[in-house]
Amino acid sequence: MSTPSTSSSSGAMTDGFHLVIDALKLNDIHTIYGLPGIPITDLTRMAQAEGMRVISFRHEQNAGNAAAIAGFLTQKPGVCLTVSAPGFLNGLTALSNATTNCFPMILISGSSEREIVDLQQGDYEEMDQLAIAKPLCKAAFRVLHAEDIGVGIARAIRAAVSGRPGGVYLDLPAKLFSQEMDAAAGKASLIKVVDPAPRQLPAPDAIERAVALLKAAKKPLILLGKGAAYAQADADIRALVERSGIPYLPMSMAKGLLPDTHPQSAAAARSFVLPEADVVMLIGARLNWLLSHGKGKTWGGKDAKAWGGQKFIQIDISPQEMDSNVAIDAPIVGDIGSCVSALLAQVGQLSKPPAEWLNAIEERKTKNVSKMAETLAKDPVPMNFHSALNVVRDIFKAHPDTLLVNEGANALDFTRSIVDMYKPRKRLDVGTWGIMGIGMGFSVAAAVETGLPVIAIEGDSAFGFSGMEVETICRYNLPVCVVIMNNNGVYRGTDVNPTGGSDVAPTVFVKNARYDMLMQAFGGVGVNATTPAELRQGIEEALRSRKPTLINAVIDETAGTESGRITSLNPKKAAAA
């Protein structure tokens, strides 16, 4: 219990400020990401005085993204604290994204008084925040009385991490913080959440059904999603893959569950294995747009809506996820750790996949890897994505514990295919929605939560969404090295104004911008790299020194394609196709 805020003739007293802090600490939450202001400034001061780490950002959306990825890394809800109305709305973008990505997060926002909001009397930053938040997150609660703070935080924690994780909103009106109550009664009102994410064991017949499908498979494939990485069942997942002998394909944030160089990885033959596989087992992955909804030519269908004929096994804690796009022949409902453990117990029933299947995959892998090696060996002037990322590839091979944050269009796509990961939960990127702006928030939280160095590979456009947070990185002296792939614009810097007017094209930025000077302005290290050698030297020095660093990697402005690898989602391009 913290030091009581006041005292009275009846004994020691506490208040809402201290009860919020005590409830979080009781549940082993010791870090808050946020931005101070009315009415939560004093809460941030008191939290720091009580030994919590309060990481203050320049924009609430970036603080929210930090809290979200902290939840992914720790399996505990990351907490984002914002002011009311505009601050709440800024944080809400991150909360909604966390829910979509199944990251446990709690957005706590101060708010206006209910009696004024409900009568729409024009309070400071008046907004019915609870009503706005409800459709965009997993759960939303409001606490009106100090004695209910313990219950509110306990419910928020359990909602965030139980079942399918997600975002939770907790509304704390301003006058709640100053409410007083007896300190002993306050302490007794707090709740230590017991087993907030209980195991959900799969049904035995579900396991038998899945094993039967795998036994009959001629071309089996395991597909690992970021849910598998979140589960932290790394040893069992690796054992299941290796003992079964089944080739596997990792989604981007599942890279490193097994090293990307593992002989069973089919990543280098992705376009071959997806349409050819006859039985696909999804572990923590969803058949959403990232996997073409399980249909179309990606899966061997004749057109965008055609099903390729595969049989699917899907492991997911949410039964509603099953059959969301195509029929799931063997649904396994439960937490990933328990489901994989149950499958592992039956893996002895399986024979190794047919040699024809494995040899066909190996042949295509060898061909594609050789082709990529030829591309990476080139040294064009100026640099392009391949020559620059070949340096990053070598860095991560030498420093596999380093975390990679990655966003952009081409910067994302090329990094994902070029840079190998060797350990789980080291690659953090744009996730299910593919949104830009996660870069600096993710980088801050990754450094804070792990204490390990972070390299953020950013498109110059993506960096703009959160670039001011380099000041935050410098202020907390975090070991973050930001590498900006600077090709002077969105996708590339060569578009022109078709009218011939003085305005540049909408996709073009200031030519030859020196992003490195932005980091220097706040006391960090700035590097302008125009060659692979300069880029390598800059990153290696950043890792040695652990100083905040930003490298302006100047690449060919013609490098890159519109929308990266999702050009088909652009209506004009899709129509032309």
Q: Mind explaining what this structure looks like?
A:
Helix 1 runs parallel beside helix 7 (149-161), helix 10 packs across helix 14 and helix 16 packs parallel to helix 22. With 577 residues, this protein is of the alpha/beta class. The strands form four sheets. It has a six-stranded parallel beta sheet, sandwiched between helices. It has a six-stranded parallel beta sheet with strand order 16-15-17-18-20-19, with helices on both faces. A five-stranded parallel beta sheet has the order 11-10-12-13-14, sandwiched between helices. It folds into three domains: 6-189, 3-Layer(aba) Sandwich (Rossmann fold); 204-362, TPP-binding domain (Rossmann fold), CATH 3.40.50.1220; 378-567, Rossmann fold (3-Layer(aba) Sandwich). The protein starts with 5 loop residues before the first strand and ends with a helix. Strand 7 (139-142), helix 7 (149-161) and strand 8 (167-173) form a beta-alpha-beta unit. The longest helix has 23 residues, at 355-377. Mean pLDDT is 95; it is low at 1-9. It is globular.
